[in-house]
Amino acid sequence: MQGNIMEKAGMLFASLMCAIMLSPAWALATEVTEMAPVPAVGEADWWKWPLILLIVTFFMGIVAVLGGVGGGVLFVPIIGGFFPFHLDFVRGAGLLVALCVALAAGPGLLKANLASLRLAMPVALIASTMAIVGAMVGLALPTHIVQLSLGGTILGIVAIMLTAKKSTVPDVPHADALSSALRITGVFYEPTSKEEINWKVHRTIPGLFTFIIIGFMAGMFGLGAGWANVPVLNLMMGAPLKISVATSKFLLSITDTSAAWIYLNKGCVIPMMVVPSLIGIMLGSFVGVRLLKVAKPTFIRWMVIVILLFAGLKAVQKGLSTMGISLF
Amino acid sequence: MTQNNTQATKEQVLYADVLEKGMYAGLLLMVITFALYVLRVIPPIVPRSEISTYWSMPVHDYLVAINTNFLHWETLPTGWSWVKLLGYGDFLNFMPIAILSGVTIVCYSIIAPGLFARGDKAMGIMAIAEVLILSLAASGLLSVGH
Fold first, then answer.
1. Is residue A74 part of a domain?
2. φ/ψ of residue B8, rounded to 5
3. Cα dihedral sign, A151-A155-A158-A160
4. Nearest-neighbour CA in chain B from A118: distance (Å)
5. A189 contact residues in B (CB cutoff 8 A)
6. CA–CA separation, B68 vs A180, rounded Å?
7. pLDDT tens, residue order, chain A (328 aa)
């Protein structure tokens, strides 16, 4: 029965997205690239957009948990593509949403020793530095270039989601010299097999280099970066999947912090957008975690892929339309 | 192998404790300040009904517009200038956002001495470097714009 409820929730989210895309608000969102301001609403109607944000992000929070993606990767393309907010504010809000979700999850994951501080520290140093650079570049570039790049990135994420494999406990014959020197290793208890699993990592230097790109993109687009962190930590560096997922979630609390400060200092934060989004996505995440036991992850994952595909195309279309090129 | 091997290290638990306290404080304060804002207990500088006029603008245009229409400052309200506006409901919300964005700096600052004390110099240096990087980002010294 709960499975049916989950499917209905998924369908409701998909329907909501369709309704948003077909509504006059979507038309307004398209015009944003042409710098047409949205008329001021009446004093009695000021709450409508925050309420819509709250509802959409609530469902987004559910879908993000069930689809195994972070909130930021859904928030920026969907809100940036289909809502009348400028991309500068959407990226600022997206970073804060991803940051707060990571902050909420971080302490529990660290205490359970699933997120590894020793694995996260060198990675975070590189990613957070590059997130600052990415945020500065993203705010300096013309909006249509960022839109186009965002669209390309989202389509790339779709490709990663469709093709990336996962390894529960990758085979790491020998830890490399750097990870040995930094003592990046650990033990965790796997309840399904009732055994303690020793883990270590390899290919640390290529992994750290990859986080230069990941950090840059996280800062530039305000996306969070769990979609990239997990494959690199798991498949490239050889951390077990559980450790990779948990460390990635914790890592976002550091990477997104640095970029969030750049957006905050630049003025890209409007509380009327940020707070409802944050509350919505966190409430949705709580519900999502409860539904996780009974949901059908394959269905949700495909729904996330389709939504991201559509949002990526929309971002490309918005970027091109500003340049006078019509895609559709 | 003992069960203790699966336990988090002392620094990791300390980091988690500070992070948890900062996170709860920030989120609680965020709900409170937002309620004060939307219920007009503390009136905002930009009226609630007019905010939708501005959020579709690029950030620079938005800052120019709110400065021209409401603040009348000589410089645009960027960096830490929001501190001067904490008496207004909308800008009061920046305080919990700053707490949530700043808690990681506190966490790293607190674990760094313990790392050095245990002879874990490499991680200690990384913790200090992270504090410096995040503090630089928070300082507002890195100015950018369209």
1. yes
2. -70, 150
3. negative
4. 8
5. 3, 6
6. 58
7. 555 555 555 555 555 544 444 444 443 343 334 444 445 555 567 889 999 999 999 999 888 888 777 778 889 989 988 899 999 999 999 999 999 988 988 999 999 999 999 999 999 999 999 999 999 999 999 999 998 999 999 999 899 888 878 888 898 999 999 999 999 999 988 888 888 889 999 999 999 999 999 999 999 998 878 888 888 999 899 999 899 989 998 999 999 999 999 999 999 999 999 999 999 998 898 888 788 767 776 777 888 888 889 888 988 988 888 888 776 6
Does residue A217 belong to any structural domain of this protein?
yes
- B-contacting residues in A 102-141 (Cβ below 8 Å): 103-104, 106-108, 110-113, 116-118, 121-122, 124-125, 128-129, 132, 135-136, 139-141
Please answer yes or no on whether B144 and A49 come within 8 Å at the CB atom: no
What is the 8-class DSSP label of residue A234? I
| The total number of structural domains that make up chain A | 1
> What range defines the domain where residue A224 resides?
2-37+50-322
Site of tokens 């004060």:
B36
Please state the domain extents for chain B.
9-138
Q: Is residue A328 part of a domain?
A: no
Terminal alpha carbon distance of chain B: 57
Residues 246-265, chain A: which have Cβ within 8 Å of B?
253-254, 257-262, 264-265
User: Which residues on B lie below 8 Å from A80 (Cβ)?
Assistant: none
Q: Do B126 and A125 touch (CB under 8 A)?
A: yes
Q: CB–CB of A88/A143 below 8 Å?
A: yes
Which residues of chain B make contact with A35, given a CB cutoff of 8 A?
56-58, 61
Nearest CA in chain A to B16: A107
What the block records as the tokens of A254 is 């550091």
